[in-house]
Structure formats: C-alpha cells, structure tokens
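Lay summary. Proteins are chains of building blocks that fold into shapes, and those shapes determine what they do. In this project we predict the shape from the chain. Here is one chain we studied, written as its sequence of building blocks.
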Amino acid sequence: MALKDTIPFGVALPHRSPDLINVEAVRQVAQRAEALGFRDLWVTENTVDHVFCFDPVVVLTYAAAVTSTVRLGCSVVVLPVHNPLHVAHQWASLDYVSNGRAILGVGLGRDHHYEQFQVPREGRVRRFREEVELIKALWTEGKVSFRGRIYELADSTMAPKPVQKPRPPIWMGVGHPDALRRTAYIADGWMGSGGSSNAAFTRSVPLLRAALEKAGRDPATFPISKRVFLSVDERPEAARAELHRWFTVVYRNPEGTDASGIHGTPEVVRERLEELVAMGANHLLLNPVSRYAEQLEALAAVAGLS
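And here is the predicted shape, written in a compact code that computers can read:
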C-alpha cells in the first residue's frame, strides 16, 4: 500500500534557508504540490532570524493567488508576542482571499522570541489561552465583548469573516506535557516540531491521545502531525551532507541531522516515514531543505503521489 493511502501529506514551501529564495521557486512548488495531490502547504514564522525567511502571511497569500485548492498553514505563529486582533484579522483575510483554505498553527515559542519583541515571558500561558479564545470569538461572532485578565474588548466587530465555518482550524505546535493536554481541549490539530527528535514525537503522541480521550474527542479524527526535515538522494552521503548543512546553519543543531531529520535513498526515507505513521502520525509535513523542485518530485514518489 502506498503511503498516500495511509495518511495525507503536506509539504513546506521554500521559505527559510541559509541561501536566498527566489519567489519563482515558491510558485513552482506551490503549483506542482497542488497538482501532485499534497493536502497542504506550510511555512514557519521566524521574524528576526539569522537566515532568510519570508513572512508567513505574505508568502501564503502569494501561494493562495497561484493555487486554487491546496490548504495553507503556518506552524507556528508564536502567539503571545502578537496582538490577537492583528492575528485574527490577518488569518481571516487569508481564509477569505483563498476561499477557505487557511490553517493557523500557534505555539508559545522560545525565550528569545520574548526578548526580541520585548514581551514579558511571565504569564505567557494565560496570554496564549486568552488570545486563542479571542481569535475564535472574532472569527465566529458578529459583535465581540471579551474580558480577560490581559485582554478586553467591548462590543467590537471584525470583517471579513473567514470562509470556513464555523472557523479555520487552529493547530498547536507544542511539546510540554501540560501543553499537550491543553491542545486536546482548545485546538483542532497538533504538529510536532521539526527541530524536536523523533523520539520526542514517540513520547508525545500517547500523552496527546490520552488527553483527547479524556476530553471526549476521537484521536483517530484529530490531526496528529510532525514536520520532517528531509533530503532524498540515491547517494546517502549526499543526502546526509545536505541535511547536515541545514541543521548546522539554520537550527545551529548539527545533532538534529540524525535525531530529528530523515535522509537517504527513497527506500530509506519511505521506511522512516512509515515508522512515524506507526508511532501515531495521521498527517506528515514534509520539509525539503534545498533543491526544492527536485526534492518535491522525489518526495511525491516516496509518498506514492506520483
């Protein structure tokens, strides 16, 4: 059985790299991924970065304009460093102009995000929860009145509303056990970080499944995904070298090449992806790190999409 018959696949757009990214590469990958049958296109948010990185809403809006059916997601927006009114409006607008294709992934981020944006780290979980609640309200209610510990809004409206009803899905990209339990109650999907190890993914999935069952939700229908940084090449040493450069320069974590990434021949990559499915993934985000058009075709073949 082909992998595509087991789970849906997303693919990352060219968006973060040690090298400059030509917008033509974004168009080519977006359109070809849609034609091949990838379910969704994804980017990350890295506003202040030591490497090239597109703004997620801008590049996804461009991708929306050159495609018609493939879904569009970010994993993740570091929500507590943003004002939820802006996030709600940006993503409602993206959903509107794409005719209902947006997926908002949110997370708590890391300490340096709070330093960069001069946002207090203290209270970040409370801020995060209120922001999710307020975004949902702005997307679904005609007039919104909200009173939290941090945010207040009185009898306010926002347009356009999203096309998706009742609203676009909100996925969470978190790893702490408490955050996984929170995901089961307030999110519509979960994605393990590409920088986290495959071993960490194995530990997280049972915790999330148990929390979903406790919340009265079906783990089989709840998206459980992982971003996977990959390189496919018939020459295993070339594939590893390509991925190693990416993890070393971009993540500054050369150990992630083997602990978090997947590299090797098409047969090896397929086996490793099958292992993630066996661990409980019902969706995978494939993230090639260079040679985007070539790698897209190779990954489509691995997944059985071509």
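What the prediction tells us: The longest strand covers residues 224-232.
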